[in-house]
Write a structure and sequence with these properties.
The structure holds two protein chains of two kinds. By secondary structure, chain A is mostly helical. Chain A has one domain. A two-stranded antiparallel ribbon of chain A has the order 1-4. A two-stranded antiparallel sheet of chain A has the order 2-3. Chain B folds into two domains: about 220 residues, Rossmann fold, CATH 3.40.50; about 160 residues, 3-Layer(aba) Sandwich (Rossmann fold). Chain B contains 15 helices and 13 strands. Chain B has a seven-stranded mixed beta sheet with strand order 6-5-7-8-9-12-13, with helices on both faces. The chains are: A mainly alpha, B alpha/beta. The interface between A and B is large, with 76 and 63 residues.
């Protein structure tokens, strides 16, 4: 009814090739962005600090991995380490040059992880699939080894940990203990929106089509004149850039301090699951995946005791934890059976159905 | 397109507002317990969690709380995972907890800078950031009763005494088997400094976190190097695996020392061969104390505890009890100082600074001889207390030494440098503004 194409005429090519050709989509997106900003003023600090900031950070990392795995078809298990490179680079940069605004360094730190990512992407020209996964696994272990062994990375800090110094933007603290969840949320939200918009333009343009061509059949792509080495390395670099920025955000705007162990192999798998559940080759899927894998357990942790207590069943924190694991695991299997292409595909089907509603054709 | 999920967030927001903050009665003191009964470290986390919970629950059941105010206890499951720990912190923060005990160095580190902002003291008992022993720089963080540097100096001192004097260590080789993380690496600078001074040789055997359970290569090199003594800095499944490997590779167990983290189950994993394994400890094991018998009577027998009856009084269970003893004592001291019943986090910070657990007080609490005395002050948030050596006799831990004082003179340099370094690196680290109480 409300959501339909009829009557929206495109009179030029620009309008026809727009990412959101439907007026309703544009309105919906604007509303969501406005709502996201409004949340900063409406949500309590638990919602902002423990739910929304990590959700946005993981979404950004998932977008990064999605560019590599979903769009270019290169499997990577080094996401955690690439996030780590971003975090450590950001730490070094902002402690070495404390006068430059930290936002600049957050964006700049991504370039370091892009360089490292491109380096470890070199084998991708010769190997594919599981073999490439093993090569990126090597990146994961090697980089993690570096994080432990090179004290220079943490400025010879005895505790071996990264910690967020006080940094401000327009005189308001955005990093460090004095920054309120509200300001940190606004910063993270803005960065994620900017980078998502950039990613959306990348994957819908020439570069994205090159990536997709390589994914679908690299030999055919090569015959059509797409250079595999450059394209694959670019995918690695862009993907690692996103992961690096996500890593910097994770340590400095969410945790406020972390050890090397945050960037272990589990983190890589965590992001990979988000991408697979959310939908390979879909930006909105990255957000869906992050929501399902990260937010759902938190909601369960709050809802389960509330459901059980009226029946006089009081369960311990550990039982809740086990239940969370079981329910999330079951849901993942359920969603993958119902829609192997991820939540993004479900969303797409829903939109298709809405377009023709109330008629079945 | 990509932000539709945020609407989900909005839906959650309204829900959270309603359910996340169950109201606690005004006349209770909210004490959250960060525990980990799940995940790879659950083996050591569960007895600690039981001990912490049971002691405070016992105070509720027996005395009706502390100073007549009930304690509102709530466990938050961290799984020893930083992500979940930070989530736990955020979820309890709004309920004005009087103290948090993260029970993981990884969770402690992000919380340290927040403590002074949120006005919630952190009790990281003998873990976390060693430098936080300096109360003038970290007014909100407490890590009694000893730092890892203290621990290492005690082990070296004990070994030296066995050899007949510290100077006899010259030419000996000491192996250092450690978790390859900041926790395990922390004592290394001190070890190297001591090795230069005393003339012993150091061999390092790092164990990466992912191969804690597989230490064959480390013990193979240990067999080749033949260190005269082996000192272990491990946690979780690493301890049990190390004992097992040491027995298998025929390392003389009476030369194998550990910092205070292994439990009974770790030693048991070595079978009969583990006899002679030694570790530092600062509190008694067993149930032969009135307070612990009260726990059995008021909590365990009534079915309020999750601990199996025979686990009460084990090493890590009693470690949990000790942790709760400090919480309770902090609250009691705060009540005494302020005259208030329902104390806040700020009061408990003052209370912790004035903890004075002398033998008389311990007797009053029904824990006579449970532990050495502990006195904290405004400047000293650690106490640097002596620990004793205990030995595994095949079935239980046996105390084999008198309290060993740490080499304070050597440790202090490390500590001050680290604290200063931390404050400098964190530009804008707040100067202490909290007033000191006169020692009462």
């Amino acid at each position: 009814m409300l959501y339909r194409e009829a009557g929206q005429f495109k009179t030029n090519y620009v309008a026809d090739s727009a990412i959101f050709p439907l007026r309703e989509d544009r309105i919906g997106l604007t509303l969501i962005i406005l709502a996201a900003y409004a949340l900063a003023f409406l949500g309590n600090s638990f919602l902002l600090q423990a739910v929304m900031i990590p959700f946005l950070v993981f979404s950004l990392a998932a977008i990064g991995l999605n560019i590599l795995t979903g769009y270019t078809g290169l499997l990577s298990l080094g996401t955690g380490a690439f996030m780590g490179v971003g975090a450590y680079a950001c730490y070094k940069l902002m402690t070495a040059f404390p006068d430059v605004n930290v936002i600049v360094w957050i964006f700049a730190s991504g370039f370091f992880s892009a360089a490292i990512g491109a380096l470890f992407g070199l084998p991708s020209l010769r190997i594919k699939g599981f073999y490439l996964a093993v090569a990126t696994l090597a990146a994961q272990f090697f980089l993690q080894w570096c994080f432990i062994r090179i004290p220079w990375l943490v400025n010879y800090n005895v505790s071996g940990a990264l910690d967020a110094p006080l940094r401000t933007l327009f005189g308001i603290p955005i990093m460090g203990p004095n920054a309120t969840p509200q300001t940190r949320y606004l910063v993270v939200l803005t960065i994620v929106i900017v980078l998502t918009w950039l990613a959306s333009n990348l994957v819908h343009g020439r570069i994205g089509r090159m990536w997709i061509a390589i994914r679908d059949m690299d030999l055919a792509a090569e015959l059509m004149g797409i250079r595999p080495l450059q394209t694959k390395l670019l995918a690695f670099a862009v993907s690692s850039y996103y992961c690096g920025v996500a890593g910097a955000l994770l340590v400095f705007l969410w945790y406020g301090g972390a050890e090397y162990d945050v960037f272990n192999i589990n983190q890589s798998f965590f992001i990979l699951f988000m991408v697979i559940i959310g939908g390979l080759g879909s930006l909105i899927g990255s957000f869906f995946g992050a929501a399902l894998i990260f937010i759902l357990p938190i909601i369960l942790g709050i809802v389960l005791p509330a459901i059980l207590s009226p029946f006089g069943i009081s369960v311990g924190a550990d039982v809740i934890e086990h239940l969370r694991f079981m329910i999330v695991g079951a849901l993942i299997i359920f969603f993958l059976i119902v829609e192997p292409h991820g939540l993004a595909r479900l969303w797409q089907i829903g939109k298709q159905k809405l377009l023709v509603w109330p008629f079945p054709y | 397109m990509s932000f539709r999920t945020l609407s989900l967030g909005l839906a959650v927001a309204t829900m959270l507002g309603g359910t996340a903050l169950p109201a606690f009665a005004q006349d209770s003191i909210y004490v959250p317990l960060f525990t980990y009964r799940t995940g790879p470290f659950a083996g050591s986390g569960t007895p600690i969690a039981d001990g912490m919970h049971d002691y405070l629950r016992m105070l509720n059941e027996r005395d009706g709380g502390i100073g007549g105010v009930k304690l509102a206890l709530e466990e938050c499951e961290t799984g020893y995972d930083t992500k979940k720990g930070v989530e736990c912190y955020e979820s309890v923060k709004g309920k004005s907890p009087v103290v948090v005990n993260p029970w993981s160095t990884g969770i402690t580190l992000p919380l340290i800078p927040r403590a002074s902002v949120d006005k919630i003291p952190i009790l990281s008992m003998a873990y976390g950031l060693s430098a936080s022993a300096r109360g003038d720089i970290f007014p909100w963080v407490f890590n009694p009763p000893a730092t890892y540097w203290d621990g290492l100096s005690m082990i070296i001192k004990y070994i030296g005494e066995k050899e007949g004097g510290l100077d006899k260590l010259k030419g000996k080789k000491i192996g250092f088997l450690h978790l390859d993380a900041s926790f395990g690496k922390e004592p290394i600078p001190l070890l190297q400094e001591l090795s230069k001074e005393l003339g012993f040789e150091v061999a390092l055997y790092p164990v990466a976190a992912q191969d804690m359970q597989n230490q064959s290569s480390q013990w193979l090199s240990a067999r080749r190097d033949r260190p005269d003594y082996m000192i272990m800095w491990g946690w979780g499944s690493m301890n049990g695996a190390a004992v097992k490997e040491a027995v298998r590779s025929g390392y003389p167990m009476d030369k194998f020392y550990s910092v205070w983290w292994p439990g009974e189950d770790d030693a048991k994993s070595g079978g009969a061969g583990a006899k002679g394994f030694k570790m530092l400890n600062w509190h008694a094991v067993g149930t032969n104390f009135p307070a612990i018998q009260d726990i059995q009577k008021h909590v365990v027998d009534k079915g309020f505890s999750k601990a199996p009856k025979d686990k009460v009084g084990e090493l890590l269970y009693n470690r949990g009890v000790y942790n709760s003893l400090l919480i309770a004592e902090g609250i009691a001291t705060a009540q005494k100082l302020t005259g208030k019943k329902a104390v806040t986090g700020e009061d408990v910070r003052r209370g912790m600074e004035n903890i004075k657990l002398d033998p008389a007080r311990l007797k009053e609490l029904g824990l006579e001889g449970f532990t050495d005395q502990l006195v904290l002050s405004c400047a000293d948030h650690n106490g640097h207390r002596a620990a004793f050596m205990q030995e595994w006799d095949g079935t239980k831990w046996v105390k084999i030494s008198n309290p060993i004082e740490p080499m304070t003179d050597r440790v202090k340099g490390q500590l001050d440098a680290a604290a200063k370094d931390y404050a400098e690196k964190n530009a804008g680290w707040p100067k202490r503004t909290e007033a000191c109480d006169k020692a009462s």
